[in-house]
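As a warm-up, study this chain.
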Amino acid sequence: MGRSHINWPLYNKALINRGKITFWFSKDLAKCWYNKEKTGGRGASDTYSQSAIDALHLIRFRFGLTLRETQGFAISLAELMNMSINIPDYTTLCRRLEGASKDIAAKIAADRSVHVVVDSTGLKVFGEGEWKVRTHGYSKRRTWMKLHLAVNEADSQILSVVLTDNSYKDNEVFEELMFDVDADIGQTTGDGAYDAKNCWDWSEDYGVRGVFPPRKGAKLKSHGNSNEEPSQRDEHIRLRRKVGKKNWKKKTKYSRRSLAETAMYRFKTILGGDLSSRWTPNQIAEAILKCKILNMMPTPCAL
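Now compare it with the structure written out below.
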């Protein structure tokens, strides 16, 4: 989408609204604030609904609050609204984070297939800051998790998210990312890290156009005089040899892959480049809720 098609006044207004603090608990949320369902197991049922817990964590991550600050913030908000609801304490917020909803609220048009762009980035769990690293180097206590995102090329909405430790390669979680996309996928695009057999096989099996740049010096699997139907990878190799790398990117819309990098930049700029949780299930829930926050914020191409 060209810059001339963007409604900049509407986008500027959306950016201003991000900084407003005039928000409140909705009446629908207040009605389902407490858990009305019994677990059927041993012990007492949870007092608060998962919707209430998720709402408080969305506030926490959006404004970079600690668990105790989130509790105090919510108490003040309920008092200002004259709402007779109790606020869960910070230990409950921490314990219940793992059960956060996996729905990241991506809005997808049902009448068209989507072009999915994929990429990954590192999120720091604990360790030294960047200044210390530049000055003295890394230490053994520096730990990272890897955030993998599938992004809608049309409007920059995050369609699926996977969080792994830093030992995973991008192509190893590609299929999981794709299966979590609740839409008809027409094309999926990634960088050279996705030029792997499982990524090409998945694209062939599900009739999706895969666009992953073959490695330099890549060999054809089946030559022109073969009776076998050419694979997608072979077609890309032939096309790149014929028109050159620059024109290949234009013809395949490979350059749109940069929108995945833009999504990573938005994530780190708005929500920070680290994870506050220390337990892996909570880290996964934190990553999902942060992606939900980004999907609530319009981008220029979505307006």
